[in-house]
Amino acid sequence: MGRSGLPRTRVVVLAACRTAAGPVSRVEGALSLGRPFLAAGVPDVVASLWDIDDSVSRRFFVAFHRALLVEGDPLLALRKAQITLLRGDDVSLAHPASWAAFICMGGLDRHSFSKGDVS
């Protein structure tokens, strides 16, 4: 992926396990699966730090995408999805192991989507 490889991509969602984890370089920092997307100019990458059960991940990302349509900002959508799991009816999802694995990398150049930009 070159810098011009993803010019219109606003957010990449890596829903697999440990996509934000990786070896740490003293020079480069964490070498995760999300880094090439950030290097290619994608402003935000949402990924997970540790293994998450598929059913938990599915529920989280359904909440995340719903929030992204409303909020327009991946960081705010991440927060809203985490709060949704934390305060939801399923007590097992309230534990931080269920929702704290997900992070948003990037976000240095804040932006907003209009509802028409998200498909």
Uncertain segments: none
Report the count of strand segments. 5
Question: What would the principal axes of the Cα set say about the shape?
Answer: globular
> Ends: how far apart?
22 Å
Give a description of the structure:
This protein has 119 residues and is of the alpha+beta class. Helices cover 34% and strands 14% of the residues. The protein has one domain (11-108). The chain is built from 4 helices and 5 strands; from the N terminus they run βββαβαααβ. A 3-stranded mixed β-sheet has the order 1-4-5. Strands 2-3 form a two-stranded antiparallel sheet. α2 (54-71) packs across α3. The mean pLDDT is 86.
Outline of the structure:
The chain has 119 residues and is of the alpha+beta class. The chain has one domain (11-108). It is 34% helix and 14% strand.
Fill in the keyword field for this structure:
alpha+beta, globular, three-stranded mixed beta sheet, two-stranded antiparallel sheet, about 120 residues
Set out the fold topology.
Blueprint: E1 11-13, E2 24-25, E3 29-30, H1 35-39, E4 44-48, H2 54-71, H3 74-87, H4 96-99, E5 102-106
Parallel strand pairs: 1-4
Antiparallel strand pairs: 2-3, 4-5
